[in-house]
Amino acid sequence: MVRTTPPRPVDIASIFPELAPLARQAIRLHPRPGIPTPYESSIGGPLLWPADEEWPVCAEVHDDWQLPVSLDDVRRRRALLEAAWLRPRGPKENLLSPEERALLDTLEAGHPWHGEPNALLPVAQLYLRDIPGLTGPDGADLLQVLWCPLDHESGLPAARLVWRDTASVVDPLVSPPEPADVDPYGNYVPEPCVLHPEAVMEYPAPHELPEELAGRLVAWGPAEWAKSHPEDEDESGGAYYQYELSVAPGWKVGGWGPWSFCDPCPMLCATCKTECRPLLTVSSGEWDGGSGSWIPLEDRVPPRPAGLRRPSDPPMVSIGRGYNMQIYICPESFDHPHLENMQ
């Protein structure tokens, strides 16, 4: 099934012509539950990986203020809670039985740190044929993103980018290693999802605009918001441009960075000091109460009963307190190290 983002409520570039030259294409990935194969683009799916190529590991120091859990613990915990949320229960009936509560406590208790390199976990596999505008090194037709599913000094999982020529993979790896230690909440364990890529047009977040233009957009917002929300008596709308007209929420490739709770900082390549460009945004959700106009048309039908997995977050990934992880790459060389940021 395709996913279709509704037209923006307002053609903002016709009202503020200064924005027109700043338009950028972004590819919303629209991950949805599925069973992807190694030969498909996916989030959290299996990677097309050569059997004779070493699987990457993380040997960095991790934030050890909480004990880690296993990948199996995360999967069993999710299955337990999903079943509990979906089954009928009375108004005073507990979500979990005493036996289930005891099992959940065991699954969340954690285990001692293994103290050895941690195998990386597949996050995204993007075939260039599926993602308009995505380009890689000469000969590469596939981008694979893995990460260590633990917090690092940045407060983020440490990501690894692999560009690959699929024609060279003649003997694919069937059973890749799994990380021994995982974030205790499973925040960095993506559920397998198939993708429904869609091109949309974006404009910079107000944080990246000249102060004078950003101020005019904030002043313009409330009156425009009131036209479609006459019931709102709180004089909302100052962030109308930011949430509804600038940067698309959710997992995406390219476009503009979703700067939010802090001002943008220079994303300069550590090797050549060139300004890096957004490659991939990993999101904690595709929409929320402030970005409802971005909900795809196909997801506006009456939803089926939702369990643990929210309709807006099929991969079940959570960055920080519901933020985004931005991955930037250097436009001068794919060999230069990428940058990561949380917003």
Automatic annotation (TrEMBL):
<protein>
    <recommendedName>
        <fullName>DUF1963 domain-containing protein</fullName>
    </recommendedName>
</protein>
<feature type="region of interest" description="Disordered">
    <location>
        <begin position="293"/>
        <end position="315"/>
    </location>
</feature>
